[in-house]
Each structure stands twice: as structure tokens, then as C-alpha cells.
Amino acid sequence: xxxxxxxxEDKILFFKKxxxxxxxxxxxxxxxxxxxxxxxxxxxxxxxAVVIILGLANLIADGFSMSVxxxxxxxxxxxxxxxxxxxxxxxxxxxxxxxxxxxxxxxxTKGFKGELLNQVVEVITSDKDVWVDxxxxxxxxxxxxxxxxxxxxxxxFISFILVGSIPLLAYIFAGLDSGIAxxxxxxxxxxxxGIALTIVGALKSIVTERxxxxxxxxxxxxxxxxxxxxFFVGDVLxxxxx
Length: 242
Known about the structure:
Elements (H helix, E strand, L loop, with lengths): L1 H9 E2 L2 E2 L3 H24 L4 H47 L1 H14 L4 H12 L2 H12 L9 H16 L4 H7 L6 H27 L3 H30 L1
Antiparallel strand pairs: 1-2
Helix pairs in contact: 2-3, 2-7, 2-9, 2-10, 3-4, 3-6, 3-7, 3-8, 4-5, 4-6, 8-9, 9-10
Subcellular location: Endomembrane system
GO molecular function: manganese ion transmembrane transporter activity
InterPro entries: Ccc1_fam
């Protein structure tokens, strides 16, 4: 029974909890940017084929770009942690007394004193790994993130593609001769995007531990503003160049 409880705490729906933030922000970015492309194309009165082409091109290019950025950001954080950790090992090996005194000062400021302080210092400094971990956390305020660059980038890309494709679904089905009238496509796309942003906004609230309704409203507002701006830009550009 305890094993199942740990499993439920480690996952939200079918996502590992530590990666849900990548899924959320990849999904929000994907839905908003793709819907902005759709809105801009609609404002410029472009054809269904053009909307699909622009939307899919944006989806792949932006999704890849975002995942690459996520990969290098996560890798840089891990490299920075490893570099500081290696330096702490060197200092423990070569400046042991100074490092031991730093441990003493750290725990003295926490209220330890006398024999208890001596025991704490002795226990921590008797194990080099514990010693270094303590210095990393207490002195440098750095903890290792277990998320790997490959996994964070993959989750970001997958969520960007999955959620970001939703605004295009109405146009893709229309392109397959589903019988949907041209004037209705943008409405269908708007509704589908709203549903997607509502779900992802709720997940974002879980990640940030905020009120769910506030998270949904914020996500919908940002998506609506981006789409409105793109629609009017497309409308203006059409009147100027077409």
C-alpha cells in the first residue's frame, strides 16, 4: 500500500510530477503560437491550405527551437552544479580544516552549540560525500535537479506538438472534405484552442500551486490577446499588400 501511495504522489494524471512543468509550458506556448498563426492567417483571409502549411511549419520549427533551448538551459544548470560540486570536493581534500570550520559556522548559526555542535560537525565531516552535499546545499544553496536535458527537451517538444496542433484540427478536417463551412473554421479552432488552454491552464495551476480558476483565466486571456493581435495584424497587412 505505501508503494502505491508514493506512485500517486509522483504522478499527476499520467505525467511524472517533475516533468509536468515542461509539459505545461510547452503546451501553452504551442497552443498560443499556433493559434496566433491561425488567427493571423484568418485576418489576412488566406486559404485553408495556407493556414495548414503555416501552422504546421510554425509548429515544427517553434517546437524544435523551444525544446533545444530547454535542452541547453537544463544542461547548463547541471554543468554548473557539477562544476561547483567538483570544486567543493577539491576544497574538502585540500582545505579540509577551512571547510570544517565553515560547517561549524553554518550549524552554529542554526543554533547548535557546545558538544552537540561538535558532534554534528564530526558526523558530517566523517563522510566526504555528505560533507560536500552539505556544503552545496547550505553554503551555495544548490541542489541537483534529477531531470535530464534529453527528457526535459523531449517532454517540451511532445507537448508543444500535441497541444499546439489542436488549433489546426478544424482546418485539417476541412482540408479532408469534412463538409465544415469555411466561415465556421475559425470558430471551431477558437473553441478547441480554448478547451486546450483550459486544461493546460488547470495543470499550470497545479504546478504553481495557484487557484485553478485564476490559472485558467490567465492562460485564456494571454491566448486571446495573442490571437487578437495576430488577427488584426493579418487584417492590416492584407489591406496593405493584397
